[in-house]
Design a protein that fits this description.
Layout lengths: L3 E7 L6 H8 L6 E8 L5 H11 L4 E6 L3 H12 L4 E4 L5 E2 L1 H12 L2 E3 L5 E3 L3 E10 L6 E3 L10 E2 L18 E4 H6 L12 H6 L8 E13 L8 H6 L1 H17 L5 H25 L2 H17 L1 H9 L1 H5 L4 H19 L3
Parallel strand pairs: 1-2, 1-4, 2-3, 8-12
Antiparallel strand pairs: 4-11, 5-12, 6-7, 8-9, 8-11, 10-12
Helix pairs in contact: 8-9, 8-10, 9-10, 10-11
């Protein structure tokens, strides 16, 4: 039985993927490492096959035509045999001690059904991650202890409201594998920034949450070629906007049985919409500003109540401040947030 399946979406990752895989091998036979070669043109496929040959009971190499990060995550879900599922990007890695602690805790949430098959009794495990920014002296730790009580099985009503910038990212989450399948999670192909959909879409199906206060995921940022680099995000703003629209679709089409998860997802959507808007503003491109307006109009068309609520809040009002002065205020606030939270 595999406790945790870990998918590594890999595209032209030959220069750094070994560091990622090596950090996960510490999990031994409890982990299943799925290296998904997404149609790479370098030696990624070769390296994946070498690790699979060397560790045949731990590492599996999956080769597919290029479909983007989302399709690599989809392939991982389709092939996973672990009770729980995690995504680790090929240029990141995990902390060995934290991995051991997480595996030990996940084992406590595994039972057998009548047929003797392993099943998980926890929907979502949350842990910390570190913004390890290239050249930065101090690494920013994203932890949740003020908002999620650690070491206790919780429900949505037990969580405290998180401030802006403190939402749960892909680096923080481990989902029960069957939950992802049952909710029909399917990320779009050839689209960046789908990690938000990976976290967001399953949330209405989550009933139990456990927070383990360990610094598990090392998220490396600062390279100029990374998809989260601000200038690259501006160039790919259409993909950011596409993900934003899909999140609006998910939120507005969900019949929520729990008002607490609805509130959390609404706040999450507000943050992503703010990011889309700020990128448009910082681009100083009239076409992108028009796309920002179109995004807000799309939200209004889908759910006018949601639109007026988010439009009236601080961020919604801020990104609609008129003229160069208004855009300058928003841009300045964004730069301050960059320094506080350490993102690109």
């Amino acid at each position: 039985m595999k406790v945790l399946s870990i998918a590594i979406p890999s595209y032209n990752s030959q220069d750094y993927m070994a560091n990622c895989i090596e950090s996960l091998l510490v999990g031994g036979e409890d982990v299943e490492i799925l290296v998904v070669d997404d149609g790479s043109k370098d030696d990624t496929a070769k390296i994946a096959d070498e690790y699979a040959a060397k560790y045949p009971t731990i590492v599996r190499a999956i080769h597919q035509e290029n479909g983007g990060h989302g399709e690599a995550v989809n392939a991982g879900i389709r092939n996973a045999t672990g009770v729980f599922y995690k995504v680790v990007d090929s240029d990141d890695k995990v902390d060995a001690d934290a991995l051991r602690q997480i595996l030990a805790k996940l084992k406590e949430f595994i039972t057998e059904d009548e047929a003797g098959n392993a099943r998980g009794t926890l929907d979502l495990l949350v842990s910390n991650f570190i913004y390890d920014k290239q050249g930065a002296k101090h690494k920013k730790v994203m932890q949740y202890r003020k908002y999620i009580e650690p070491n206790k099985v919780l429900h949505w009503e037990d969580l405290r409201k998180m401030p802006m910038g403190k939402y749960i990212l892909m680096h923080s989450v481990i989902y029960r594998t069957q939950l992802l399948r049952d909710c029909g999670l399917e990320l779009p192909k050839h689209t960046f920034y789908v990690d938000n959909l990976f976290v967001f879409n399953p949330l209405p199906h989550v009933e139990t949450i456990y927070y383990l206060d360990v610094n598990f995921y090392l998220y490396y940022i600062g390279r100029e070629d990374q998809s989260v680099n601000e200038q690259i995000m501006i160039k790919r703003i259409d993909q950011q906007l596409r993900v934003n629209r899909l999140m609006i679709d998910k939120f507005t089409s969900t019949e929520f049985s729990d008002g607490h998860v609805k509130q959390y997802m609404r706040n999450y959507l507000e943050i992503i919409t703010a990011i889309s808007s700020v990128l448009a503003i910082r681009s100083k491109d009239p076409e992108n500003l028009k796309k920002m307006d179109d995004l807000w109009d799309y939200m209004k068309e889908k759910d006018s109540k949601l639109y007026y609520l988010l439009r009236s809040r601080f961020i919604g009002a801020a990104v609609h401040l008129p003229g160069k002065i208004g855009r300058g205020i928003v841009s300045g606030g964004y730069k301050i947030a960059q320094k506080i939270y350490g993102f690109n």
